[in-house]
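Listing 4. Sequential folding, example run.
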Amino acid sequence: MESANTSPCPPKTSDSDARRRSDGSDACSEGSRRQSMTSSPVLRCRYSRCSRAVLATAQEAAAFKNCHNCSYTYCSRACRRAHWEKHRKTCLFSRIGSLCRQVIASAKEQKDTLMHLSKIARRGYLSQGVGAVKCFFPNPEAAESFLTHGLSHLGEITYVRWQDLLPSEMGPQLYSELVKMCKCYNPESKLILYVCVCVISETPAAGAVKWERQLVSRCAKMRLSKEEQSYESLETLILTSSPLIGDTFTVRELRTRCVDNLQGHLRIKGVSLKKQHPEIHRQLTAYVEDATVQLTTMTVFPKDSFTGKSFMCVIMLEVNQKSVKEVEGTRGSVRTIDVMRDVFGSV
């Protein structure tokens, strides 16, 4: 027995020795196969009544089936279906998908949250066209906090044009559904809400365990808040500029003066983009520092600190007059200022 441990394949000496040692040789071969199975990546069916295990070669791996929501693997569709009733209770992505649907339901029911989302949807549509309101939570706990505490814990909100939606962020099926919603809804009475939650999950890999960041998303169409109609009467300030071209100044100098003038107009109303709208301020800073950066139309709803009234501010730098006229045509009381040809200085 000891010699078997030190020499897994003893040399053949005679027929009689071979016969005596045949059982030991078979045991060695079986031990080698077991060692190979444990030292190589193994795929195992997660259905407990099956538990089939195979080496994770490309051919074998192709035959296995994944859970639609997570990294659990099964040797067949039959095993996947048989295990689902039990697996669905613990499946991470299934639970996060359910959490997304709860967020959407709560957004519909909470009056202040719906009002906030409706405001974002309307200003986004008026300045950028049809699209979806995206609500991002950095982790499941953040989404659960919103369910408990409401609007004060709502995730990061942005308005996304349907052309800017990314299939890689949500998968082809949801992408197709979301784009279809964006093209068919009535922005005068409806909005599209797109909720996504970031999760960290284990992924199948050879050797060490690997973790990856993934997004679980759900979307829905809902009615605009009735109170949103009151925003139609808001004063609208459009801050714009024609394409910045000049022989005297560099692109950076032109953009610096443009952004300084823009912020000067807002300071007249007591609005500081850096303090009150830091994301807009970061985009404008990047626009100044990098000549390759192009700004999309941005809309904010600041409050005039002197009158106490909110107003709609649309920032449209380096755009043609046709685009400006289209936005002007959607609003009532509109004031449009070319920030490069005003009292703050011209080129």
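-- end of first protein; second protein begins --
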Amino acid sequence: MLVSGGNRGIGAVIAEQLRDAGHRVAATHRSGEVPQGVLGVQCDVTDTEAVDRAFGEVEEKLGPVEVVVANAGITRDTLLLRMSDEDYEAVLQANLAGAFRLARRAARPMMRKKFGRIIFISSVVGQLGSAGQVNYAASKAGMVGMARSIAREFGSRGITANVVAPGFIETDMTAELPAERVKAYTDQIPLGRLGTARDVAQAVAFLAGDGAGYITGALLPVDGGLGMGH
């Protein structure tokens, strides 16, 4: 299994969850360290050659990549009228095109094995929109169309493609927010709390497992009900 952006935040917890389930797990990173017991491989997902090298290293050390989790991403938030071409293109390149590169590199070996799981980590913002995040919302919404197209292309080869869309998740960033800001967020969430990285990781582990073998092209919200209906 390969998780991109597995050195911190949600990606690190996904890697830990899959590791603890007994899988051989690798995680890409640009800096920092991945969780103990996870193979770390340096990779910039905006670079096709770097993605290919990362897969080659994982295949050499752990064997074929049967599950890929496209989690790596960035934000460059600002209002539309202030957003530069560079701000827009950088986020699309890292988030959406990066996920495309991972899926494309993973697909051919999966086709040979007639088995594979491709999982994209999107966001509730991709469905609801968010002021100041035109670039980020576009990148995350695009994952849904990409996953569903992949699901149609490769379903006959036993390969599934699905999307997990986290909502407001407890992170280092949200821990620094004022209490009134956090309350404003939680007031919008039917379950009345922020999610945890573990909530997201457990959803990913389900889609990666045998129990999700008949699920493909699906959007699985992990958002406490915030985005329901979208």
